């Protein structure tokens, strides 16, 4: 009888453990954050690029609904492939899928951008971040949260071009780019038109990072939803053969 009672007790314990385990699996451990701006006709674009266009092909009265769209590769939230600035580097279809997912390290420089719209994220910013949150891991995406995305619905303010035709918005500095190569990151991201700041003429940050076969994500949205560390970025970029880049649906998984 004693062994029967013990078996019954063990059975109940195992049952409770299994039930608890199943309940934990069913509870979503992550929330999904969309870091993507919606593609539509009135969004900010790089000066000289064609506007985003959408043309109807069929309506439901015909039995189904469908459209055709056209835009430059670097439209809306998008990825720059390494070949964009450096000949012989990977084109969009050659970027490994493993390079399109990684931990997000979000560096908040909004206060500095508020004082200087042409602010460059520096190596010191990177080191200050690491002193507080730990070293940036290999394969991470380092994302600059500049606050510029708040201008997205006003294309003129987002592009921010002066009377001399010079754009003004923040970006990464060359010293930061070189340090990030030492960390062996997957790529960088930013909530502006470019990872190089607006006044750039040589696009040195593109050349440094893309030259090392890293990728860049530009025009990110909803960065306020991300913690400094721990979120996982998933970059759903179009796999365009010989593409210099591609529009992307960028998602983040943030632990609850």
What is the domain tally? 1
Overall 3D form: globular
Biggest sheet overview: 7 strands, mixed, barrel
Number of helices: 6
Quick one: how many beta strands? 12
Distance between the first and last residues' Cα:
46 Å
Radius of gyration, CA atoms, in whole angstroms = 23 Å
CATH architecture: 3-Layer(bba) Sandwich
H-E string: HEEEEEHEHEHEHEHEEE
Mind telling me the CATH class? Alpha Beta
- Percentage beta strand: 15-25%
- Give the CATH topology: Glucose Oxidase, domain 1
Q: Mean pLDDT across all residues, rounded?
A: 92
* Major sheet: arrangement of strands: 4-10-9-7-5-11-12
Structure description:
The protein has one domain: 3-Layer(bba) Sandwich (Glucose Oxidase, domain 1), CATH 3.50.30.50. Helix content is 25%, strand content 24%. It is built from 6 helices and 12 strands. Strand 11 (232-237) and strand 12 (245-255) form a beta hairpin. The longest helix is centred in the N-terminal third of the chain and has 25 residues, at 2-26.
Task: Break the fold down into its secondary structure elements and pairings.
Elements (H helix, E strand, L loop, with lengths): L1 H25 L3 E5 L18 E6 L7 E5 L7 E3 L20 E8 L1 H6 L4 E2 L1 H11 L7 E5 L9 H5 L11 E2 L1 H9 L4 E4 L13 H8 L3 E4 L13 E6 L7 E11 L1
Parallel strand pairs: 5-7, 6-8, 7-9, 9-10
Antiparallel strand pairs: 1-12, 2-3, 4-10, 4-12, 5-11, 11-12
Helix pairs in contact: 3-5, 5-6
What can be said about this structure in brief?
The chain has 6 helices and 12 strands. The chain is α/β, with parallel strands linked by helices and 256 residues long. The longest helix has 25 residues, at 2-26.
């Amino acid at each position: 009888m004693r062994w029967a009672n013990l078996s019954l007790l063990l059975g109940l314990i195992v049952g409770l453990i299994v039930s608890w385990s199943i309940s934990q699996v069913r509870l979503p451990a992550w929330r999904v954050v969309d870091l993507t701006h919606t593609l539509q006709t009135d969004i900010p674009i790089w000066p000289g690029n064609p506007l985003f266009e959408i043309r109807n092909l069929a309506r439901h009265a015909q039995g189904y609904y469908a459209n055709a769209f056209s835009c430059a590769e670097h439209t809306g939230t998008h990825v720059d492939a390494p070949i964009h600035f450096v000949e012989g580097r990977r084109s969009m279809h050659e970027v490994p899928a493993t390079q399109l997912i990684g931990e997000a390290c979000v560096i908040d420089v909004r206060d500095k951008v508020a004082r200087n719209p042409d602010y460059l994220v520096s190596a010191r910013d990177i080191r200050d971040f690491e002193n507080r949150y730990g070293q940036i891991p290999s394969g991470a995406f380092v994302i600059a949260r500049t606050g510029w995305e708040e201008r997205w619905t006003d294309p003129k303010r987002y592009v921010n071009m002066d009377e001399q035709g010079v754009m003004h918005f923040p970006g990464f500095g060359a010293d930061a780019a070189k340090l990030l190569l030492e960390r062996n990151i997957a790529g960088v991201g930013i909530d502006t038109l470019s990872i190089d700041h607006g006044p750039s003429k040589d696009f040195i940050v593109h050349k440094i990072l893309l030259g090392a076969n890293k990728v860049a994500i530009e025009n990110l949205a909803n960065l306020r939803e991300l913690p400094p560390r721990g979120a996982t970025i998933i970059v759903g970029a179009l796999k365009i053969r010989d593409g210099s880049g591609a529009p992307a649906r960028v998602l983040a998984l943030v632990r609850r």
